[in-house]
Specification:
- The structure is a single chain.
- By secondary structure, the protein is an alpha/beta fold.
- 23% of the residues lie in helices and 28% in strands.
- The chain is built from nine helices and eleven strands.
- β10, α9 and β11 form a beta-alpha-beta unit.
- α5 crosses α6.
- It is globular and about 60 Å long.
- Bound molecules: adenosine-2'-5'-diphosphate (A2P).
- The site of adenosine-2'-5'-diphosphate has 15 residues, from β8, α7 and α9.
- The site of adenosine-2'-5'-diphosphate (A2P) has 15 residues, from β8, α7 and α9.
Length: 281
């Protein structure tokens, strides 16, 4: 038994458990290595891990990521933020101070190991939406993660003429991940060709001064969202929605879409909108 990494980081000794030469992950899992970690704010970080050759997913899906905690694997669902064509996998996470997983996960560094379940899943996928003219991707906080994958998926641009990514956060600094993502997407040699004419990034902040303030639900209800974008109000004939944020945000946004006549779709029954909650813990 060789602990492959001794660490002076408190709370991280559990990494040794899965890095011993004789560690065999459960059949449903693979052991992956962290390749990069970026801390965006005191509460947000993103990380990248190796991707097994056999791992396939649809943009917008999530997968279970885990660590050995007190000798037992502890998992939580993470939306995959990287596009399907990326060689690695990226995730965007909140740091919950007492969260059983994220309080430890936020300390990972390149070279560390994480467990990943082999089977991704989810409803926030293009397949669950009927074709339309315009797709709204409504996100708050880390709820932007699945859209980071979807706005880099060529299928999204094949299916829709306009892709409107809304991102609302409490504070200005929390928008940075999305801002960098959209800039990189538009300037990407491959996907940029699709994105530059179709992708619109619409940001707002709720607890600090910013050129645009207010919850996305209020911006929909007041009609300001549509005036700002220069588009007509929501119309089930042409508009599609995807929602990812907290439980409350999802519930309230969903109600507004339903009020506008859109109905919820699923993988086996595509319709006008889909939801996925941003997982925390
Ligand atoms: P607010 O600052 O007014 O609570 P959180 O971190 O709590 O998930 O919040 C992320 C963003 O989502 C914040 O800007 C927050 O606004 C907003 N938000 C929280 N609850 C809702 C909701 N029910 N509907 C719409 N936006 C919400």
């Amino acid at each position: 038994m060789r602990p492959a990494r001794s660490t002076d980081r408190p709370g991280l000794s559990m990494f040794d458990n899965i890095l011993t030469d004789d560690y065999t992950p459960p059949k449903t899992c693979t052991v992956e290595r962290v390749t990069a970690v970026k801390h965006w704010t005191d509460t947000l970080f993103s990380f990248r891990i190796t991707r097994p050759a056999a791992f396939r997913f649809r943009a917008g899906e999530f997968v279970m990521i885990g660590l050995m905690i007190d000798g037992k694997p502890l998992y939580r669902a993470y939306s995959i933020a990287s596009p399907a064509w990326d060689e690695e996998l990226e995730f965007f996470s909140i740091k919950v101070p007492d969260g059983p997983l994220t309080s430890v996960l936020q300390k990972i560094q390149p070279g560390d190991a994480v467990l990943m379940k082999k089977k991704p899943t989810g409803t926030l996928v293009n397949d669950a939406l009927l074709p339309g003219k315009r797709v709204y991707m409504f996100s708050t906080g880390t709820g932007i993660a699945p859209f980071a994958s979807l706005i880099r998926d060529p299928d999204t641009y094949e299916k829709f003429d306009q892709v409107i990514l809304t991102h609302t956060c409490r504070e200005v600094a929390e928008l940075k991940y999305g801002e960098d993502l959209v800039n990189e997407t538009i300037n990407d040699p491959l996907i940029g060709e699709f994105a530059k004419d179709k992708l619109v990034h619409y940001t707002s902040v709720t607890r600090e001064d910013f050129p645009r303030t207010g919850r996305i639900t209020d911006l929909i209800e007041s009609g300001k969202l549509f005036t700002d974008l220069g588009v007509p109000p929501l119309d089930p004939a042409v508009d599609r929605g995807m929602i990812c944020g907290s439980m409350d945000m999802i519930k309230d946004t969903k109600e507004l879409l339903e009020k506008a006549g859109l109905t919820e779709g699923a993988n086996n029954k595509p319709a006008e909108f889909v939801v996925e909650r941003a997982f925390v813990g």
